C-alpha cells in the first residue's frame, strides 16, 4: 500500500475540505481552551457564564485562523503538485514554508523569513515522524521463493 492517498478528491475540493476541517479543529480545540480559560478567570458563582461567554467570543476567531492556515497550506500543496507533477514530502515541506512566509508577510521580510523557515521545519518534523512510524510499523516484506517444479518428461 502506498503512503500517499491517491483516492482523495481533486484539488479544488481538497482545498475546501481541508479549510473546513481546519476550521472545525480550531473551533473545537479553541472552545475547550477558552471554556477552561473563561471559567478560570471568572469570579466565583459566574464561572459557567464566563466560560460560555469566552467560548462564544474567541472560539470562532481561533477556528477562522486555523481555516486560513489550512486553506493556504492546501492551496500551496495543490499548486506544487500541479507544477511538479509529483506527490512527495517535499511538496508538503515547501507548502509549510510558503504558508508560513505568506501569513507573516505583513511583518516584513525578516518575520516572513523566520515564519517560513519555522513552517518548513515543523512540516519536515511531521513528515519525518510519519516516515519513521510507517517504516517501523509496516510488516516486513515477504520473500517470494520461486516455485520448484519437477522436470517434465519430454513428450517427443
- In DSSP terms, counting alpha (H) and pi (I) runs of 4 or more, how many helices? 4
Helix content: over 70%
Strand content: under 5%
**Total count of strands:** 0
The residue ranges in which pLDDT falls below 50 over 5 or more consecutive positions are: none
Q: How many separate domains make up the residues?
A: 2
Which features would summarize this protein structure in a list?
mainly alpha, 156 residues, single chain, 4 helices
Describe this structure in words.
The chain is mostly helical and 156 residues long. The chain folds into two domains: 9-85, no CATH class; 88-134. The protein contains four helices and no strands. The chain has helices at residues 11-41, 47-84, 89-103, 109-137. The longest helix is centred in the middle third of the chain and has 38 residues, at 47-84. The two termini are 47 Å apart. One of its GO terms (cellular component) is TIM23 mitochondrial import inner membrane translocase complex.
Give the structure's gist in a few sentences.
The chain is mainly α and 156 residues long. The protein has helices spanning 11-41, 47-84, 89-103, 109-137.
Reconstruct the topology from this structure.
Blueprint: H1 11-41, H2 47-84, H3 89-103, H4 109-137
